[in-house]
Design brief:
By secondary structure, the protein is mainly beta. It has strands at about 5, 10-15, 20-25, 30-35, 40-45, 45-50, 60, 85-90, 95-100, 110, 115-120, 130, 140-145, 150-155, 160-165, 165-175, 180. The strands form three sheets. Strands 1-2-3-4-5-6-7 form a seven-stranded antiparallel β-sheet, with no helix packed on it. A five-stranded antiparallel β-sheet has the order 8-9-10-11-12, with no helix packed on it. The protein has a five-stranded antiparallel β-sheet with strand order 13-14-15-16-17, with no helix packed on it. A hairpin with a 2-residue loop joins strand 5 and strand 6. The chain starts with a strand and ends with a strand.
Length: about 180
């Protein structure tokens, strides 16, 4: 037979819909389809939820949620051998948007743009190297002591204040004057 049905339930069955094709259907809406093109499809509510293609690439149609894997919650990306494990972001309109990858020196590199230009490298010793300007919005501070009282910030347009242990040490103004 081309189809094996569950007794009294024509929505649950195993079918051989065409040569080299097998479908396992439950409830008429959810099924697994081994296709003769080499792909394996998982359907939920009659829509493709997951495609495993002949090259072992998995394509999910929706959000992938990760919850509690082997004593941790998260996603692990492993490279094989000396390859760099990578997470790539892209969309249909702009193409490549950027990536995060690990290096052989235990650094994480964040890239941006279609050319995946390095924007930031976080070294294993916790050093951050930016390849362009670091921009801090007006009236926001650059702290030098783990967020304590030593910082530099623009208190008003063209005025930069320097503080040490919450004491104002120096004010530099755009007209070249300063106060201590």
């Amino acid at each position: 037979p081309d189809k094996l049905e569950h007794a009294g339930d024509d929505n649950t069955y195993l079918s051989f819909s065409a040569a080299d094709n097998i479908k396992l259907v439950a409830g008429g809406k959810n099924y697994l389809h081994a296709h003769d093109n080499g792909n394996l499809y998982l359907y939920s509510n009659n829509s493709t939820a997951l495609t495993l293609d002949a090259t072992q690439t998995a394509t999910f149609a929706g959000t992938v949620l990760i919850d509690g894997v082997a004593n941790y919650t998260g996603l692990e990306v492993k490279g094989s051998g000396a390859s760099r494990p990578s997470i790539q972001w892209s969309n249909a309109t702009q193409g490549d948007l950027g990536s995060i990858y690990g290096t052989e020196g235990n650094a994480l590199v964040i890239t941006s743009g279609a050319s995946n230009t390095t924007a930031l490298t976080l070294a294993s010793n916790q050093t951050a190297t930016f390849t362009s300007d670091v921009i801090i919005p007006a009236t926001k501070a650059l702290y030098l002591d783990d967020g304590g009282g030593t910082y530099i910030y623009e208190s008003s347009d063209g005025v930069i204040d320097f503080y040490g242990d919450t004491v104002q040490l120096l004010t530099a103004k755009q007209n070249g004057t300063q106060s201590e």
